[in-house]
Design a protein that fits this description.
Blueprint: H1 6-10, E1 28-31, E2 34-37, H2 40-54, E3 56-57, E4 63-66, E5 69-70, E6 73-74, E7 79-82, E8 97-98, E9 120-127, E10 130-135, H3 140-152, H4 174-181, E11 194-196, H5 211-219, H6 230-233, E12 243-247, E13 251-261, E14 277-283, H7 295-303, E15 308-309, E16 329-331, H8 332-335, E17 354-358
Helix pairs in contact: 2-3
C-alpha cells in the first residue's frame, strides 16, 4: 500500500515477476444442506485473500531473511532460509513459491498493482557471517485487513480504514482487532470497525483479556438457555468473509472462505461440532530454519514453498504429522481448542478462536 522510496527500489531483489492473477471464487455457507452464496463484498474480500496467497515467484539465489523485530532490530529466532533450488541443488530445479511472503517487520505490502516483486526493507542482521534482511510482505492481520479493505472499497493508500488512529496510521494488528471487536476500543489507537459474530448470552465480553476467556465463558454451563450453546449461537453464525481471531500474549487471525454446518437432530438446532467446519486462508509464515536441527529438517525448512495455508506441504509435527497438506479446514471443536490444530511451526495448537466481522456487514 505504501509507495516505494528510491532506496527501497535500489534494494529490489532481481527475480521472475508475474501479474497478479484475476480470480473470482464462489464462497458458500452450507447450513444443514441448504447452501447460501456469500455477498459480492464478502466474495471480493475472499478473492483478495486468495490472490495474495497464490501469487507465484522464484528466487535468483538463496534468501536469508527475518520475519520479526524487537526494539527495532531483527531477531535471530525468526530467521528463515529459503533455497532457490530444491535441496539447494541446481539439478533439482528452481522452486516456485506461492503467496506474498510473511513479515511483521515490513507488513503493509499487498501488491495491489498486480505485479509481485520481492523487495528488501532497510533492516539487516549479521549472524555467523550471513546477512539476513527484512522483506516487504504481510502478516496474518495485515492480510485480513487488506482483504477487508478490498471488500469494502476502502483499499486506496490514503484510506485509514482498519488503521490505527495514532499518527503513523499503521494497519491493524490482532491486538487492535481484539480491542475493537471484543473490548470495544479500550486503547487510544483502535478505531470502531469490527464486531463479534453471534450471541454471547450472559457473558460481558468487555471484561475479556483474551480469546480463551471468551470461549471458555461462552462454553460454560448456564451461559445460554436450554438447547443453545457456543456452537449454535456463535460458530453457526459465521459467513465467508468473516475472520477467526485468536488473541493471548500474541495472536493470529484467519479469513473464512467457507462454512459447513452439520446438525445432530432433524430440527437443526443441535450443531455437531466435530462434523461442522470452516475453510480458511491464513498468512502463517514459512517453516523456521533451525541451525541446531538435523540435515533433513534443515532441508525441509529451506525447501518450504509458501507462508500461507492452505498449502501442499507435509505437516511435520504433532497429531497430524505426516498429513500431506495443510488444508485450512478447521472443525468447530478445533476452534474452541477441544481438539488440536496443526501448525507450520510448533506442532499441535489448542488456541481458542472467535469469529469477528466488519461493522458494515450483517
Amino acid at each position: 500500500m505504501k509507495k516505494i522510496c528510491v532506496f527501497a527500489m535500489l534494494c529490489v531483489l532481481t527475480m521472475t515477476m508475474f501479474l497478479e492473477p484475476s480470480f473470482a471464487g464462489t464462497y458458500k455457507v452450507n447450513d444443514g444442506g441448504i447452501e447460501t452464496v456469500a455477498s459480492i463484498p464478502r466474495s471480493d474480500a475472499c478473492d483478495k485473500m486468495t490472490i495474495m496467497s497464490q501469487m507465484t515467484w522464484t528466487l535468483p539465489e538463496t534468501l536469508y531473511y527475518c520475519t520479526l523485530q524487537s526494539g527495532g532490530a531483527l531477531t535471530k529466532a525468526s530467521e528463515v532460509k529459503l533455497y532457490k533450488y530444491k535441496d539447494g541443488k541446481s539439478a533439482n530445479g528452481v522452486i516456485t513459491r506461492k503467496g506474498i511472503p510473511y513479515s511483521q517487520v515490513d507488513r503493509e505490502y499487498s501488491f495491489p498493482s498486480g505485479t509481485f516483486t520481492l523487495n528488501f526493507g532497510n533492516k539487516t542482521l549479521i549472524d555467523d557471517g550471513i546477512t539476513y534482511r527484512s522483506v516487504h510482505g504481510t502478516d496474518c492481520a495485515s492480510s485480513v485487513a487488506f482483504a477487508w479493505r478490498k471488500g469494502t472499497g476502502n483499499n486506496s493508500a490514503s484510506s485509514n480504514f482498519l488503521k490505527r488512529t495514532n499518527t503513523n496510521h499503521a494497519i491493524y494488528t490482532t491486538e487492535n482487532m481484539f480491542n475493537d471487536a471484543v473490548r470495544e476500543s479500550t486503547d487510544t489507537y483502535t478505531g470502531d470497525f469490527l464486531k463479534v459474530v453471534g450471541d454471547y448470552g450472559k457473558y460481558n465480553k468487555k471484561t475479556a483479556a483474551n480469546t480463551r476467556n471468551v470461549v471458555d465463558a461462552l462454553s460454560a454451563a448456564g451461559n445460554y438457555g436450554a438447547g443453545k450453546d457456543i456452537y449454535s449461537e456463535v460458530y453457526a453464525k459465521i459467513k465467508p468473509g468473516d475472520a477467526l481471531l485468536f488473541r493471548g500474549s500474541s495472536g493470529h487471525v484467519r479469513l473464512v472462505t467457507g462454512v459447513h454446518i452439520v446438525y445432530t437432530d432433524t430440527a437443526k438446532t443441535q450443531v455437531d461440532p466435530e462434523a461442522s467446519y470452516v475453510n480458511c486462508i491464513e498468512q502463517t509464515g514459512f517453516r523456521k530454519y533451525k541451525k541446531d536441527a538435523d540435515a533433513t529438517e534443515k532441508k525441509i525448512a529451506s525447501n518450504w514453498s509458501t507462508s500461507w495455508i492452505p498449502n501442499e506441504e507435509t505437516v511435520q509435527e504433532g497429531t497430524y504429522a505426516g498429513q500431506k497438506k495443510f488444508t485450512g479446514m478447521y472443525t468447530f471443536n478445533q476452534l474452541t481448542g477441544k481438539t488440536p490444530s496443526p501448525t507450520v511451526n510448533g506442532g499441535d495448537s489448542y488456541n481458542r478462536y472467535i469469529p469477528i466481522r466488519l461493522n458494515v456487514w450483517s
